[in-house]
Amino acid sequence: MVLPEVPVSPADSKRWRTLPVVSLAQLMVVLDATIVNIALPSAQHDLGMSDTDRQWVITAYALAFGGLLLVGGRVCGALGRRRAFLTGLVGFAAASALGGAAGDAGTLFAARALQGLCATLLAPAALSLLALTFTDARERGRAFGVFAGVGAGGAALGVVAGGLLTQYADWRWCLYINVPMAALALAGTPFLLRDRPDRGLPRVDVPGALLSAAGLVALVYAFAQAEPRGWTDPVVLTLLTGGVLLLALFAAVETRAPHPLLPPRVLLHRARGTAFSSVFLMFVAMFGFFLFVSYYTQTILGYSAVRAGMVLLVNAVGGIVGSVGVAGRLHRRTAPRVLIVVSLLSAAAGMLVLTQLTATSSHVFLVYLLPAQILTGLGLGCLLATATDLVTAGMGPADAGIASAAYNAVQQLGAALGTALLNSVATSVTAGYLDRHGRGRDAVDAGTVHGYTVALWVAFAVLVCGALTAGALSPSGPAGSGAHATGPAS
């Protein structure tokens, strides 16, 4: 049977051309979270950074991006999503060029902070433009599947690209690479939805903006400092306590503010709340997973940075398959709760595979790394596609930007916490092992792998708890039913 061709209107064609533009911008933001990590030793050597100062290459970006995302989401509405996208895109490219050309550490730190600041406009603008462009349920499934696939694979791809560029070009190209990518995205901006700035927000929620920024910055910085200082360090404890209190005060202020920065209805709906919490827990587990796979393959197996990155490329491919091939196809036929639970359990199964590793394991790639990468990639991609749709479904233009910003903020907090928490678990377990077994070469390898596996058990538990919570709390209706209302679920 031959199906008749369905004519595609010019408007439909233009709408689908939006997808690669916003996806490319999303790739830039996600890549930057990991690509510079690989280049850090080379940058430190070239610019004469101390071991203490080098963390600011990562931290400056994380603080600006994670701390100001909610403010950036509201600015998107005030400027208009399309204008905010253009501003963030050009600014991100300019900051990347500045960082690539940096002649001293201070300039590089400033450029990274500026990148993070521009990303606070670019990331929520890209997601909200996608949400406002694709409103049909079937189209949303396909579009958000592709967009989530870029996000799922981008972090792992950053490790691959960072290794290749550092080894075969120069560490500066880990920053310069954003310039041609931004130019391509800029060329496609005529296809973006032309929206108007929001008119219903005449007043700025200054207390909310200050409290959210201070609270998020405190938490992100606390997580960054937990690894070198320890979780019981007074500075870390003060930052953690202060961050939690500031965000609690922010939540209280938002319930009474006439024009809240983050309207409670964005978070209190059960479907959206499930999406936020699930993505947070997935990022806690996955960023520790990326770190351990990179360390294990290089320090224990003796892989080069490029070869280690190629291992993570399997995860990126799995993420694309999970988002486009699984979530994109099942979007209208399967309840979001089912997709979220299965996604978290798939990633947990991948973690479980790697917990069986020892320093003397054989056939490591085929027996352990390959299935773990496939399972975690499928889970991450499927979850991001489902959650991205839930977070933005039913959102009007006034709330789309702030919902997108909150979604990105959750990812940043999860990634920062996961990296710090799981690395702390691994290092403390390894130290205890070496105290008991001595510090010979074999003991060091065995202790290092033991530390990784214990941390992966923690990641496994986080994902299983997330799956149980999502299954119990999320709505059980068909896809999309739980997210299209804008008020809290009863």
Automatic annotation (TrEMBL):
Gene3D superfamilies in UniProt: MFS general substrate transporter like domains (1.20.1250.20), Multidrug resistance protein D (1.20.1720.10)
Positions of transmembrane segments: 21-43, 55-72, 84-103, 109-132, 144-169, 175-193, 205-223, 235-253, 274-296, 308-326, 338-359, 365-392, 454-473
Record's bilayer topology term: Multi-pass membrane protein
Record-level GO cellular component terms: plasma membrane
GO biological process, one term: response to antibiotic
Subcellular location: Cell membrane
Domain Major facilitator superfamily (MFS) profile: 18-478
Gene Ontology MF terms in the entry: transmembrane transporter activity
PROSITE patterns: MFS
KW Hydrolase (keyword) present: no
Protein name: Major facilitator superfamily protein
Protein source organism: Streptomyces mobaraensis (strain ATCC 29032 / DSM 40847 / JCM 4168 / NBRC 13819 / NCIMB 11159 / IPCR 16-22)
